[in-house]
Design goal:
alpha+beta, five-stranded mixed sheet, Restriction endonuclease, eight-stranded antiparallel sheet, elongated, 13 helices
């Protein structure tokens, strides 16, 4: 790999080694030494415990004064009770220095490791982008590659496979040149083509900030004012914005400024991952809790004035964004509900119960990791006609049906009226109620007896029908109800004709109100 020229500036050396360690351990944390670093420049916590890293930019030999500095750093680091301590110095120890460092181990219960010049060079072989960036001039090739992609100066290709291979090659080369950022090429027609520049590890944007000056032109037109407002929102809170190139003037590193002819510029803060439990709490004016909805907040975007935390409920049906302005302490909560294609009734019920309480007069508060992050604020919504109460009732009925019929159901996005009727009937029967049905006529075969002939004189017929395995179809699925008995209303022979074995009778109900109602009950 050739020899390595160590930076003369201690700060430059420490940053280069810190970037190398971050590439090796993406979850590495830097320690700001402005107020004393406690014997560590970086640290890593894993299942074993705390791993401490100290960086010294010494070259030459380990003099008495340099040894003293290493020992002082080690003593301070020991107070943190680490499980390991590594000191990274571009010096390979000679035998006397090796004995000195080995003697230090006896005073500490955790392993001490000297990471010298040979170790550093070996790691640079594994991470060539760090070596190229900090010990070689890479800027010219980086700029050339970015402009090559942006201006579409790509060699001719014959197949889609060739195109994919070429794009992978370009992305790989870009990543080799810059250890701080990963590059993603988005290929597609029109606005769908672009380059994303993403931090390669947490904190990479602080190690090597991308500084691009942006100004909005022609702000006195409605479009220009809108572009200026969008950019200000991005600057303040990190919101993603798409700006037409006609309103944007960029200046900065040539490798990162879009070339002439670009259609638009998309700017956004990187969404940093989070793993925070949260609750949305609905209260009345007196502070009494009316409803709660659990959330998982998964990412945050930050700007100069504040940030936006984003998450969703366990079903993914509800997404929530919480925005906090650090300068004014003002906050806002935005809730979006997306009706999925299919959910279990119990999953939907939490969401609908929450929505049922969200309206004029109620207030909303977020609890984040067990702590309130805002004062209760009024809802700014228009209540839905009819409210959520009917939906809550249907979902509660479906949950009872699942339990009593020992089955599972999936609620579609748009249940039909027939499904809603079937839900009511199934719930009524399974909970011991009676379902009424309208019966206008019936047909039956009867033997030729005096009793049957007597029916021809308008004597009423009272019939019961037993169904040992009754089912009701809900959402296209047959739900077992069990044995039921149907009791028909009083019926009268309206037509009779001979059959091979007796009589074929047509029966009709009476004409008075309610005379055509049959009842169905579950037999326990």
């Amino acid at each position: 790999m050739g020899d390595v020229r160590w930076p003369n500036d201690p700060m430059a050396y420490e940053q280069a080694i810190a970037v190398l360690l971050s590439c090796m351990h993406p979850q590495l944390q830097r320690v700001d030494g402005a107020g004393g670093d406690g014997g560590r420049d970086a640290q890593l916590t894993d299942a074993q415990g705390l791993h401490v890293f100290e960086m010294k930019s010494f070259t030459g030999r380990m003099t008495k004064g340099r040894r003293s500095k290493v020992v002082n750093s080690l003593r301070r680091a020991a107070l943190l009770k680490p499980v390991s301590w590594d000191v990274i110095v571009p010096i390979d120890l000679n035998p006397a220095e090796e004995r000195w460092f080995a003697d230090l181990q006896g005073a500490y219960p955790f392993p001490l490791s000297w990471r010298g010049a040979t170790w550093i060079k070996a790691r640079l072989v594994e991470h060539p982008a760090v070596r190229r960036f900090y010990f070689a001039d890479h800027q010219a090739e980086l700029g050339h590659l970015l402009q090559q992609i942006a201006r579409k100066h790509i060699s001719p290709i014959d197949t889609a496979v060739d195109a994919v291979g070429r794009l992978r090659q370009l992305c790989g080369r870009l990543t080799e040149l810059d250890p701080h950022y990963a590059f993603r090429i988005i290929a597609g027609p029109g606005l769908h083509t672009g380059i994303e520049v993403l931090p390669a590890y947490p904190g990479a944007d602080r190690d090597q900030p991308l500084q691009i000056a942006l100004s909005i032109t022609d702000p006195d037109t409605p479009e220009g004012r809108r572009a200026a407002a969008d950019f200000e929102r991005c600057r303040r809170y990190g919101d993603p914005v798409d700006l037409s190139a006609e309103f944007v003037r960029l200046s900065g590193p040539p490798s990162l400024v879009p070339p002439e002819g670009s259609d638009h510029v998309r700017i956004e803060a990187i969404a940093e991952p989070r793993d925070l439990p949260a609750q949305l709490i609905v209260t009345d004016a007196s502070g009494k809790r009316l409803a709660a909805l659990g959330l998982h907040m998964s990412s945050i975007r930050s700007g100069t004035h504040g940030g936006t935390l984003t998450g969703a409920d366990p079903t993914g049906a509800v997404t929530c964004t919480f925005r906090l302005d650090r300068t004014t302490r003002e906050s806002s909560i935005k809730i979006d509900v997306h009706v999925p294609d299919a959910l279990r009734p119990a999953q939907w019920l939490d969401v609908v119960r929450f929505a049922a309480q969200a309206g004029p007069g109620s207030r909303l508060q977020m609890i984040l990791a067990g702590h309130p992050v805002n004062d209760p604020m009024p809802f700014r919504i228009t209540p839905h006609v009819g409210g959520a109460a009917p939906v809550v009732r249907v979902l509660e009925q479906l949950i009872a049906i699942e339990r009593l019929a020992v089955t599972t159901l999936v609620v579609p996005k748009d249940p039909s009226n027939e499904d809603l009727r079937a839900i009511r009937e199934a719930h009524t029967l399974l909970t011991g109620g009676t379902v009424e049905e309208v019966v206008s006529s019936a047909a039956m075969e009867a033997d030729d007896t005096d009793f049957v002939r007597g029916l021809f004189t308008q004597r009423p017929v009272r019939l019961r029908q037993n169904h040992p395995n009754y089912e009701i179809e809900i959402f296209g699925q047959r739900v077992p109800i069990g044995p039921v008995q149907r009791t028909l209303p009083a019926l009268y022979v309206s037509e009779h004709r001979r059959s091979a074995d007796g009589w074929h009778l047509t029966l009709t109900a009476g004409r008075e109100p309610g005379a055509n109602v049959a009842t169905v009950q579950r037999v326990v």
